[in-house]
Structures are given as C-alpha cells and as structure tokens.
Amino acid sequence: MNESKIRLGIAPIAWTNDDMPELGKENTFEQCISEMALSGYVGTEIGNKYPKDPDVLRPYLDIRGLSVASAWFSAFLTTKPYEETEQAFIEHMNFLHAMGAKVIVVSEQGHSIQGQMDLAIFKEKPVFSASDWQALATGLERLGALANAKGMTIVYHHHMGTGVQTTEEITRLMDLTDPEKVSLLFDTGHLVFSGEDPIEIYQKYQERIKHIHFKDIREQIARQVSTTEQSFLNAVKSGVFTVPGDGMIDFAPIWEVIKSSDYEGWIVVEAEQDPAQANPFEYAVKARDYIHEITSI
Predict the structure, then answer these.
(1) Where's the Xylose isomerase-like TIM barrel domain (predicted)?
(2) Measured in whole angstroms, how far is the alpha carbon of residue 14 from the centre of its chain?
(3) Is the pTM of this model over 0.90?
(4) 240 CB contacts (<8 Å, ≥6 apart)?
C-alpha cells in the first residue's frame, strides 16, 4: 500500500457543533483551523463558521497547509420533490469543486430524527417504505451523475437516527444503486454505535468506499443512551462520541483491512463533543498521536 495516497483530516464539529451551535459558540473559525494545522492534520471538512465564498476561504486554509476534504449535504429525496434537493446540491457541489474536493458527503434527512432532541435514537429510528427506497436510490443516482460530470463522487453517509443506519439498510442501498454513481462513506463510530461490525462492512464494500470517518465510542455512555432512551443530540451532549484511541474501538484491525484494500483518499477524524468538556485541540492531538502510532501516517 502507498500510504502517501491517504491524507488525514479532521472535522470542525469538535470546535463548534453544526446541529447544536451553542456547543462551542465561543470558538472562532480561525482558532479552529489553526489548531487543526497545529495538531498535524492536512485537511478539514466544512463547518458552519467557515466562509462559503471559495475566494475568501482559500487563503485562510492555504496559509495553514489545509485542504478541503469534503462537506456534509442533507438530501430530502424521500420527503420533498427531487428538484429541491438537486438545486441545493448543485450549489453545494460547485462550492466543493472550487475548493478542490473530490467527494461530496450525502445523507438522506427525510424522516431523520438525528436533530430531534426528544426522540429516542433507537426506539424511534425511521424505517423507509418501498417507495422511500426507490425515491432515495433514483435520486442519489441522479445526484451522482451530476457529480461525475464534474469529476467528483458522492459518498453516502450511513448515520444514526436515519433510514440508512444498519447493516441491512446499507446493504439495501448498495444493492439498489449503481456503483459508478453512488459510493459509500465508512464511519466507524456510527457503525459501532448502531451495533454493526465495521470490519464486515468495510470488507464487503471496500471497492465502493471513497471516504472514511474515524470516530470512537464511549461504551458505557452508549449503553446508557440505549437503556434510558436518549435522543441522538442528548447522546452527543452526554459524550457518546470521542476521538480514536479514547473509546471502545480498536482501530488497529480496522486499519489493517483499510491498508490491505489499497484505499486512496481521506481519513477524517470526527468526534462531536461538548468543547467545554473535551478541549478540541487536546483531543485533536490525542487522535493524531494514536493514528500515527497504529498507521505510521
């Protein structure tokens, strides 16, 4: 494996949370990207405090040696007319293209409960109907074709509290979509939190995995979230997520399957926590040291 083909980035959600902006509201955009660079990362995803004009954003990142790995896009293919999602997607895609990104993170938010503070993440999890699945698959292929025309790829983000979370649901989505148009994002934290086997998922879909999130889980808190029927947002506030090397996941065997697959692309550290409880810079360094220890990257 040519490990130089893998670049390591980190998501800004540890500094300021996109879903709960009150978490980390005191942390500035420049502090965030400066601490990313100081921690040894070369890439970032896009947060809500980032300038959305490429000509404004680019100098901030260039001087710190940072590139844009990708950015989250919320699709509503199961609940709104396709044209609404497409219009927003094209604007998002063009921004990422201007920033040099090659992949676009897409997650279906139709029926999602991940942003609902009062709905239990496991008990109230949405289940797609047959028509939902068809609308999702067809819509994603159309978005994928738009991305392909720009030399880009959409990577689907399986996610807690959505209709594509479990192994069965990931399998169904992969079976329904054209591999040339729809790729997969591999997120260790969401798989383990959901009760899935990340190595099984990686090995099964390694040819379609074009983007990776390294996220860890605090096992005791994850159990409490389930038994006390907490929502996704409350789980985040409780500290269910942390950085690699600080939770229950052993990333060494996961790295071995990634390494053996000749993966090329980004590995992005992502761990949404309350910055008042988990200093973002400290945890970024902790993750960087751990990843270097197991991967030599």
Answers:
(1) 40-286
(2) 13
(3) yes
(4) 193, 217, 218, 221, 222, 225
Q: Which domain holds residue 91?
A: 3-295
Length reported for the chain = 297
What is the number of structural domains in the chain?
A: 1
Which residues have C-beta within 8 Å of that of residue 279, sequence separation ≥ 6?
Answer: none
- Phi, psi (rounded to 5 degrees) for 203: -65, -35
**CATH number of the domain where residue 162 is located:** 3.20.20.150
